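U., I forgot to send this yesterday:
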Amino acid sequence: MVFRGLTDFVYFWLFAHRRVLHQVETKKRLNRIFGKQWIGLWLALFTFLLTELLAAFPALTESVYSRGFYPLVATALSSVSRWFPFSLDDLFYVGLIVLGLVSIVGLVLRRIRWRAFFVLWLNSLAWLYVFFYWLWGFNYYREDLNERLSIAESKPDTEAFMTVLSGLIESANAAYVEVDTLDVARIDSLVEDSYRQLSAFLEIDYPAGVRRAKPITFSGFFSKATILGYYGPFFNEVQLNKHLLPIQYSVVLAHEKAHQLGITGEAEANFYAWLVCSNSSDSLLRYSAHVYLLRYFLNEAYSLEAYPELVKQISEPVKADFRQIREHWMTLRDEKIDDYASKVNDAYLKTNKVEQGIDDYTGVVKFVMDFSGDSVANKRLQKLLNP
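Result:
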């Protein structure tokens, strides 16, 4: 390049300098938007878009995530968390609360600026969102139970409902066992054996990890909200309330293990727990399952004219166990905490496209009715139980 004079050189220098400044400013703007501090936010946005896609294509979710990616995640996480006798998820949540309190105190004392406070919280929530869905939450968008287990849906029929309920009452009466003590290790082994035996029918990739049950660290507080157990998705852990009665332990354990196996819906987890325990070789597991399910059926039957007669069919020992369970949890329950926890759980379930919200728990009645009316599905189950 040849400059004809000083003027040309000055113009060229100004143009080049302006271009460099423009490039620097552009780079700064891009860093402000796509810099390291916003990686979590962009990943959260990507994850949200992915949830919408997977919700629209449950078969894709089932094959790629629930039956492909998730079993690997469950195996990896549970292989680590199994070595800790305490709940890593509880510790994680406590850490989040401490972080939140420290950041608020820092803001009040002006040790943290508003912008830094905002970035910290936004990033923390974004990463929580990302990890929740990638480690477990995408299972919310898999195929529903009827399609997954090839169980035909039945039409509502009061007569059929009464027949199943009467049979359930008979089963509970016949299976009654008196329970005072509990061998936790034995119960865990029996539940695992039953899941292993029924894995083909339940369409689960057994074992998909190690399911070591741990006590909820703050069981007293959880009891006030009548929370019997919960599944921790961040470390693939099953947590059970220390105040569980022996008669409840096995079926609640089976319910939380269903969550660990990738079953997100509460009604579906209830169905898995009932099926696994009611088909166990152990009398305690069978009785626990019948009592657990009977409560949901009786709630559904409450408005029926025949309800008083149905209750009369329940034996006195079984009625005594119902009273014991109710009195036990009512003694521990705090009405305000329970109501608040129910609202939070309801919002959580609806956010994950569980339209019934907290009422989803009672959906187990529908699944049991569908299963009871499907002779083909029952035959498939019997072949597994009696090869």
